[in-house]
Amino acid sequence: MQNIQNQVYTKQRTKTFDLVITAILAALIFTATLINIKLPFGQGGLIHLGTSMLFMAAILFGPKKGALAGAIGMGLFDILGGWAIWAPTTIISRALQGLIVGKIAWSSGHRGDNMGLNILGAVVSMPVMIAVYYIGQAIMFKSWIAPMASIPGDIIQNVVGLLIAIPVCIALKKTPYFKKKF
Description:
This protein is mostly helical. The protein has 7 helices and 2 strands. The protein has helices spanning 2-34, 50-61, 63-80, 87-105, 115-141, 151-172, 176-181, and strands at 36-38, 46-48. A two-stranded antiparallel ribbon has the order 1-2. The longest helix is centred in the first third of the chain and has 33 residues, at 2-34. The model has no long low-confidence stretch (mean pLDDT 92).
C-alpha cells in the first residue's frame, strides 16, 4: 500500500514540476520576445530573442515543453503586444518549431546532449516555421505574393536564434542540473 501511495505522490509531483518548468519557460520566451527590433520590410515582422529561448527550451527540456512554451510564450506576446491578429499563426508555427527541435534533439536516446542533432533540429524547424507564417500571411492578406517579403526576416530571426541558443545550451549542459539529469 505504501509503495502505491509513493508512486501516486511521485507521479503528481512530477506532473506539477513539469507544469512549473513549462510555465517558467513560456515566461522566459515571452520576456525574450519583448527584446525585439521591428523589421523595416515585410509584413511587420520582428527580430527577437524569443526564437533563441524557444530553441533552448526544446533542446534542454524536450519536445513537449519546447512546443508548449514556444506557443504560449510567443502567442501571449502577440496577444498582449498589439499583434493579436498574428497569434493563431504564431501559436501553430512556434508549437511545431518547438516540437521539431525537441524531437530531433531528443532522438536516438539523446536528451539535447548532441550538438549536431540540436543544430539539425533547429535547421529542420526553420522551413516549417517560415511556411506556417507564409500561409498565415497569405490568408490574412489574401495574397500569395506579399508574404514573400517576410521570408528574409524570418530567416534572419531563426539564424540569430540558433547562433545564440547553441553556445548557451553547450554552457548549460555543463551545469550540475543538466549533468545529473542527463
